[in-house]
Amino acid sequence: MMFATGLNIKKRVIICLPTYNEADTLPMMVEKLTRTLPDAQILVIDDNSPDHTGDIAKGLAREYPLLSVLHRPEKQGLGPAYIDAFKRIVAASSGPDYIVQMDADGSHPHQCLPDMLRACKRADLVIGSRYVPGGDVKNWNLARRLISRFGSFYADFWLGLRLRDLTGGFKVWRRDILARILKFPLRARGYAFQIETTFIAARLGARIIEFPIIFTDRKIGKSKMTAKIAFEAFWYVPYLRLKNIYKKHHENNDGP
């Protein structure tokens, strides 16, 4: 689990791209991000993809000086991949001001990043939201739209955060709030990780903004959503509320 190249940790923005079988989409995504934010660091987190995405990322690192690769030994889920990357980033003695998380399949609109980063100057977390005015989803059938809407409604029903897109994975974090979140026992492995981290941020008093985005379903490759991932979110969301473990941990370890 070593970086193919060293992180240029002095850069103000770092974009984290978790990958698993994204060989066909990663080069295009890196090119677009480099055009949109030419001074941003890009970190690819690859879980030993069978399609050799990790090798492609190594090649891209030779072409793009600000791109680094975190090679992980096996597929362990979205949550562990992000946690591994985030911990390395915030552990640096001097790190970026803003940490971006987004998919590598092109579904998140890279062109929104400059505005989301500007919004983060007055917030601790900016969520790219499909369900606020101005947001939308393209290329989804009715069933998938309903499932996604229900997922956000279900999470907000249990957690009471009054946010419309709790399951979204396009986010910009301030470094300091993310460092505080990483002190907590993060357990979600799939998309529930998005809900879990936002929940903790809210409990810590973070300023959260939902920024409207147009989410476009991937055109290449397959969705990573599975029944197992959906079931984890189904039981884990009420667990967060009913056990109230983060409130207790916050009171004992992080202060008011």
Structural commentary:
The structure is a single chain. By secondary structure, the protein is an alpha/beta fold. Helix content is 42%, strand content 16%. The protein has helices at residues 26-36, 53-63, 78-91, 113-119, 142-159, 175-181, 192-203, 227-243, 245-254, and strands at residues 13-19, 41-46, 67-71, 98-101, 125-129, 136-138, 171-174, 208-212, 214-216. Helix 2 links the parallel strand 2 (41-46) and strand 3. The longest helix is centred in the middle third of the chain and has 18 residues, at 142-159.
In short:
By secondary structure, the chain is α/β, with parallel strands linked by helices. Helix content is 42%, strand content 16%. It has nine helices and nine strands.
CATH-defined superfamily: Spore Coat Polysaccharide Biosynthesis Protein SpsA, Chain A
Name the strands of the widest sheet in spatial order. Answer: 3-2-1-4-7-5-8
* CA radius of gyration: 17 Å
The tally of helices reads 9
Q: pLDDT below 50 for ≥5 consecutive residues: which ranges?
A: 1-10
Stated plainly, the CATH topology is called Spore Coat Polysaccharide Biosynthesis Protein SpsA, Chain A
* DSSP E strands, number: 9
Helix-and-strand structural type: alpha/beta
Structural topology:
Blueprint: E1 13-19, H1 26-36, E2 41-46, H2 53-63, E3 67-71, H3 78-91, E4 98-101, H4 113-119, E5 125-129, E6 136-138, H5 142-159, E7 171-174, H6 175-181, H7 192-203, E8 208-212, E9 214-216, H8 227-243, H9 245-254
Parallel strand pairs: 1-2, 1-4, 2-3, 5-8, 6-9
Antiparallel strand pairs: 4-7, 5-7
Helix pairs in contact: 3-6, 5-8
